[in-house]
Amino acid sequence: MRPKTTVALALLLGLAFAATGAVTVTAQTAEDCGFPYETTGTYGETTLEEEPEDIVTLAPSVSQTLWEIEAQDKVTGMDSFSFYLEETEDVTDVGTAFDPSFPEQVVAQEPDLVLGALLNPDQADALDDAGLEYHTVASTGGFDGIYEKVEELGRLVGECEGADETVADMKDTVAEVESAVDNMNEPLVMFGAPSEGQDNFVPVKGTFKHDIITTAGGENVYATIGMEDEDGLEQLISDEKVAEALSEDPDWIVLAGEGPEAVPNTDMYNQTTAVQEDQILTVNRNYINQEAPRILIPLERMARAFHPDAFADTAGTGGGAGAGLPEPDVGVEEASSGLSVADGVSRAEFADGPVDAVEVHAELEGEVTVSVVDTGDAPGTPVQRVTVSVPEEARDLSGTVRFLVDSDRLEAADVPADDLLAVKDDNGWTPLETAALETDDGVTVVADTPSFSDFAVVASTPPVVLADASVDDGTVTLSAADSYDEYGDIVDYGWSVDGETYEGETVEVEADEGEATLTVTNDAGLTNETTVEFSVDEETADYETGAEEGEADDVADDEPTEEEGLPGFTAVAALVALLSFALVRR
Fold first, then answer.
1. DSSP labels for 364-399?
2. What is the pLDDT, as a whole number, of residue 572?
């Protein structure tokens, strides 16, 4: 146990508002990830005799990181603001640092390790008195710090390999974004929409959100007017500074979880390029407010919004593996083969080319011709496209097509075999029942089809569906703005609320309480859905949201935290927390 003189003081929500003094942690291999393990963090020593199996997390950014490094099964309790994460049904809610019973609820879990942040020394003393090991995580100030923290948390919980893989993936994505926006004109970006007469905290130079804005190819307006903080803390902005920032004429306004209606309807705002050209972008508040791996989602949304031309050759809003893929070189542009009948099925086999065999579920004779065509408007990340011509009487019959994707082609596409999908063009692309079978020469994609026409083999997976509900004066705004598709584009957003249906990425409904089911469809015809529950307190206009797991394994469900200000804090609570922070640091 640490001496009580090394008690932690860090603000509760996420890493963004913890004290400075981050510890540099070197990535370690799985072999070096053993126990016992001792480390000195920002505020004291942590000693773990064996790998922790029961962990309580006290900050959403820490919880999110454990989810990303595949350590979520070890989390038995977490703070109330972490329940936007998926598959949390069996995790105990230990409340928030503002709850008087917060320490007792943490201690009651009897965890092997407590990770996150505390509000005051008394809370740390309670953990010490209970004999619990805890480790605080500092503010990072940018991507390099986030990488260190992912590795630090991975080492503490015995998931070094998962942490290293997560960091590697993050670095790849950041490098791709930086390369795409390099040498582009930098639009002026205002994060949030500060209003006069209120306590507004903004991301100045030195904060991780500043790093996100600049990495996405933008210029932070608060840095432009000279606001910065060496400790990486967001700063309270005066009305005079708000006016000065708006006078710089921001090109974009980025909002955390709120719709365009959150922008004040004033002359100062209405005269900006952002408002006049409707360049107001909403990003997921749970991701943008946390220094954790999913920060890449708002990063890429911002980069694509600021610089659409830089991403014109890449697929979808998820980055699109295989971007800029050349047309297939399959050796044979067109081949024909006669049908032979066996066991009630007519089959044509091909010695070379993109198709191995075509089966028609009927007994008939004739020739089948396979022609290679440009991938053109094929959805997702196209791998190859062909036209299969069968005898006229077979065109509307069902059958099976066996496509061949050789190793070179698969490597050039840079997509995993498991993500390959066969789609059919019926005045619009529809997905087919597909099985991808790996062979020594590549992959055989077997697809059942209801008829014959143009086909394509593409990389596509169900879209990641993220839903958010916010309330203003009894009007519920439902947003799917942070939903994205890894390989292609989202083409349809459908909402179902109490039997009524709505279409659009963002919709408004009049309701006191209920649930909204969001169904998202990508350009390959794959769908995914999630449900958001909301309730409105007429006196306080407060709200709650929740979401159920969708159909795909990688579906993330969104649950907002508190209103804008310090992430997860009301303006008053944020000010109180900062004052407490300053006093204890002194």
1. ---EEEEEEE--TT-SSEEEEEEEEE--GGGTTS-E
2. 38
